[in-house]
Structures are given as structure tokens and as C-alpha cells.
Amino acid sequence: MTSPTITASGAGADTPRRSLEATRRRLGEQAVKAFLLVCAAVSVLVTTGIVLSLLFGALGFFDHVSVREFLTGTRWSPMRGEFGVLPLVVGTLNVVFWALLVAVPIGLLSAIYLSEYASHGVRRVVKPTLEVLAGIPTVAIGLFALFFLRPLAEDLFPFLDWPSVHSVGVAGVAVGLLIIPLVASIADDALRAVPRSLREGAYALGASKLNVTLRVVIPAAISGIIAGIVLGVSRAVGETMVVLVAAGASPNLTIDPTDSVQTMTAYIGVTATGEIAYGTIQYESIFAVGALLFLMTLVMNATAVRLVRRFREVYD
Amino acid sequence: MAHQVPGAAHLAVAGARAVTAAMLSSRSRGDKVANAVFPAVLLAALALAVASLGVLIVWSLVEAWPRLDWNLITNGPSRIHPETAGFRVALLGSLYLILGVIVLIVPLGVGAAIYLEEYADRSKWYNRAIELNIQNLAGVPSIVFGILGLAYIARSPLSLGFTAAAGSITLAMLVLPTVIIAAREAIRAVPSSIREASLALGATQWQTIWRQVLPAAIAGVLTGVILAVSRAVGEAAPLLLVGAAVRVSRDPSFFEGAYSALPVQIYTYSTQAQHEVQQLAAAGIVVMLGFVLLMNATAIYLRDRYEQKW
């Protein structure tokens, strides 16, 4: 604390001038501040640790496998020394596709209902319920997908060929259920950030509620809505347990929803659980795949942060 | 108001209003139908969202029903008798993990939040870097934290081995941004007039924070901590990489020896074909959901109930 010394020029000449400066240096205050700075810096340390561990691990991996082979190879078979990451990436994107097919319409429509149509009472019950449901552990959703949704899918679509108990389509739908609360909650925030005057202006011009919602509120909130979807994609890309349980462990390069695939996260999870010796190329491949995963989610999160900032700036 | 208008005038007003209403609502029939159908579609979507997750809870209860007894908590895992095996070892492992997580995230998370809200000068580049960093850290996939745990915590420089301590630190790093973000919001919501009054009475900055700001923000901070702990309870992916996946039949200890955790145990059971084992996995889900949903509900209740309006 450095408050300026006040010179009491107007005070009586005989009273000694009192300084508002602290009489002794407050070492305790300084120590507390330093401790708090260290707390805040821990997060930077964690990020540095993540980047360094991925970087060194991946560099070790790329000593044995060329970057080109890694990024463009179409076969992933670590035991036979084939490290083409495309099957894992396509598997991941496949899961993301099915997840979005479920989560975007359901999440957005729910958000529109909550923000524009729901009565205060409904909102007060449903919003917290969604928040509580957002906390369901993902391994539970994985088992639900494997033992409930997968047989259900076979009953609903008996004309499809279901080659294994694992199915990328079912896993994707389950990941979609998982990210609905996330997408809905961010979209709801964005819709509610649209000022009432915009809605009332449209009503005054004779627009129906449907038109106000579709042509005024949603366009005004679009950057926030997209941010929610992007965060949902990032969450789906990084989701591990659901795909580990329900999508299987066979790195097929396929887009068939009934097939079993392996995603990037599932590969990391399975490989780490198995007995792998430290320093082998299989061990190092975890870091290469992890680095790719980290970069993908980093780009998406940065995009979402920018979009959110934009809608906040416009209306706050 | 119409009823205040007497007699014939009343009728005239009513007629005029009817005509006006008819003119204003002379939209096409399609428009009317769309206006009625749209909310129904929205409501159906919302119902589907809540119902599908509700079905999950009901399904796990139905599957687990024959196994919901005390054996589930008091017995350890057993290959020979899966019908009476329980989650004792995994629950103890989870308990150790969570205690470790709480010890780490409360000071670190709240400390970081106080620094960023009360001390940090936003014109300094390093403060902005810390802030951006926390935002990005919140979006890093959980399994990537597992990689960090595998590379630097289980092995050198921390060299804790594949123990509960390593798992605890890994989980704490994963949920740290949750605590920081929630605590910052709670601290930011305390009006500056309270700080200024305290400073004007001669309190130092830290006295102001410790005796005025933190007590006023405690509900929000607590919400963040509970949400973070509940996330850590259900998180399995990073633990797979720091050793929780091996078979353990003895009670764990914090700094040495193998350990297991509830969600990891459930995952391991789900990969086995025996019906009794799958039933056991569902029972584990019920126990885990019980914990997690209760904690989340408490946190959200706390936030909504004690959210102070200044």
C-alpha cells in the first residue's frame, strides 16, 4: 500500500505533521500477496508441464516415425509398427458428428424454450436440473450406452448390420447426451444477453413471437450460440470414458455408424492401462496422439473464448 | 379498463377492440400454426433432454436393484464371488483421492481467485497471461492431464509412483480451473463499497479480504469447491494413466502401493462379460451417481439460496 503522504498545510503550525504512510513496512501483507501470486502461477506451471510433457514425448516419437507418416498414414497398428493416425482422427470426428447431430438440435431448442418461452417457475426448476445432470460421470453414460442404448439401437434399426457390441454411432449419441447441458446452458446465456428492447421493438412492428425469436433474438445471439457448439465439439473430441466403453478399441478407418472404432482418447486410455514398457515407441505414441488432441481442443477453445467475448462486448 | 366504461359505450369499445384484434391477427393460417407448433417442438426437445438423462438414472437403478445392499460398500472385489463383491477398496481409494484434491484445491484455487480479483493489475502482461491460461486450461481434455501425471508426477521430477498421491495431484490440477472461475465470480459479486468502507476504517488490504470479502463470498466459493470435488469423484480418464487401473484387493494407502477408484473400478467391470459383474458395475454407478448428484444439487442449491443481492 503506497498512499501518498498528505502534507497538512492548513493545520495549525504547532501540531506535528502526521503521515498516512504505514509506520512500518507491512511484511505480512507483502508475504500474503506473494503467496497468492504463487497460487495463481500454479496454473501456468500446469500448462507448461502439459506442453513440455507432450512436446518431449512427441519429439521422442517422431525420432522413429516421420511426421508425414503419422499424419497421412491410414493404418494404426502400434504392435506392428504402423503409426498412421488417420483412423483415430476419423474415429474421433465420427463420434463428434453423431454427438452434434443429437446435441445441437436438442440443446439449442431447449435453450430457446428456456430463454424465450418458459415461465419463471419452469425455468427455476429446469435450469438447475440440467446443471445437476451435466455432472453425471461420463463412465456412467458409457455403460448406459453399451448396455442400454446399443441393444435399443438394434431393436430400432434391425435392418442394419450390427457387427459388434461396440458401435461408433451409439457412442456418438451418448456423447451427444453428455454435451446437451453444456450447449443448452451457453446458448441460453447468449439468448438472455440479448436486450429486451430488441424484442420489444420487433413486437411493436407487429412481429409474432415466432418471428421475434427466429429473426431477431437468434441472429443477435449467434456468436454465443456458436461458441456453445464449438465448446461442445471440443468436449466431444476430448471425451474418453464413453468412447472407451461404447465405441471399442479397433482402429478402423470407417464411417459406418454400426462399426467399432477407436478414437484418439480411447487409444491413449487403452494403451496406458495395458502393460507398456517405459520408453518404448508404443509408450511415446501416447504423447504424439495426446499432442494432436491438445492442439485440436486448444484451437476450438480459443475460438469459443473469442466468440463469447464478442457477444459480451456488444450488449454489456 | 373495459368494465369501467358504462352501457352502450362498453359495447362499442368491445366491438372496436374485436375488429382491431382481428386486423392485427390477420396473419396467414400457416403463420398461426407455426406459432402454435414451435413452442411444442421446443418443449419436446427440452423434455427429451431431461428424460434421456432421467432414463439413465432409472436404468442403473433397475439393473443394480438386486445388488443394493451393504455388501456393496463393505466387501472388497472378488473374482470368485462377483455376486457378493463390493466396492470397499475402490471407495477408500476415491476417498483418499478426494481428500487430497480438497487439501490442494481450496488454498490454491481460492488463493489464485483472490489474487486475480483483488491484487492483479490487469495492465501487466503476466496477469493477463495467467487469466488467459486458466480459461484455456479449463478446456483441456481430462486425459491430457493424465498424460501430464504419467510423465511428470508418477515419474520424475515428482516421482510419486503410481499411487493415490499422484492420482490426487492429477485430479486437483484438472479441477483447479473450475474452483478458480467460480471463486472469482463470487468475489467479483461483492460490491466495492464494502471494501472501501473497510479500508476507510483503517484495515489493511489483506484484513479487508479476509474479514469482509471472503465471508461475503463464501457461498459462491463453496459452490465452486463442491462442483470441482463432484467432478473429481466421477473422473476416470486421467486416473487410467496414473495407475488406478490395476487390480487391487487390499485397502490402499496414500503414498505407497496400488490403489483403485470408484469410476475406474466401474470401467474395469464393464469390460467383463459375466452378468453378475455387469450388475456390480451398475450398482457402482448407483453409488457414484448418488454421491455426485447429491453434491451437485447441494452446490446449486447453495448458490441459488445464498446468492446475496446487494
What does this structure look like?
The complex is a heterodimer of chains A (316) and B (310). Chain A is mainly alpha-helical and 316 residues long. Helices cover 71% and strands 1% of the residues of chain A. Chain A has two domains: 38 residues; 244 residues, Orthogonal Bundle (MetI-like fold), CATH 1.10.3720.10. In chain A, helix 3 packs parallel to helix 6 and helix 3 crosses helix 9. With 310 residues, chain B is mainly alpha-helical. In chain B, helix 4 packs antiparallel against helix 9, helix 9 runs antiparallel to helix 12 and helix 11 packs antiparallel against helix 12.
List the SSEs and their pairings:
The complex is a heterodimer of chains A (316) and B (310).
Chain A (H helix, E strand, L loop, with lengths): L26 H38 L2 H6 L3 E2 L4 E2 L2 H32 L2 H14 L4 H19 L11 H25 L3 H9 L4 H12 L1 H17 L2 H6 L17 H10 L7 H35 L1
Antiparallel strand pairs in A: 1-2
Helix pairs in contact in A: 1-12, 3-6, 3-9, 5-6, 6-9, 7-8, 9-12, 11-12
Chain B lengths: L6 H18 L4 H36 L6 H4 L13 H32 L5 H13 L4 H13 L9 H25 L3 H9 L4 H30 L2 H5 L20 H9 L4 H32 L4
Q: What key attributes describe this structure?
A:
A: about 325 residues; mainly alpha; 2 domains; two-stranded antiparallel ribbon; flat; B: mainly alpha; MetI-like fold; about 75% helix
* Average pLDDT reading of chain A: 86
Question: Could you give the count of β-strands of chain B?
Answer: 0
Question: How many DSSP helices of chain A?
Answer: 12
**Could you spell the SSE succession of chain A in H and E letters?**
HHEEHHHHHHHHHH
Largest sheet data of chain B = none
- What is the architecture of the largest domain in chain B at the second tier of CATH? Orthogonal Bundle
**Share in β-strands of chain B:** under 5%
Level-1 CATH class name of the largest domain in chain B:
Mainly Alpha
Number of domains of chain B: 2
**CA-CA gap between termini of chain B:** 38 Å
Shape of chain B: flat
Helix content of chain B: over 70%
**Largest sheet properties of chain A:** 2 strands, antiparallel
Low-confidence stretches of chain B: none
Compute the gyration radius of chain A: what is it? 27 Å
Level-1 CATH class name of the largest domain in chain A: Mainly Alpha
Quaternary state reads heterodimer
Please state the second-level CATH architecture of the largest domain in chain A.
Answer: Orthogonal Bundle
Remind me, CATH topology of the largest domain in chain A? MetI-like fold
For the record, give the distance between the C-alpha atoms at the N and C termini of chain A, rounded to a whole number. Answer: 32 Å
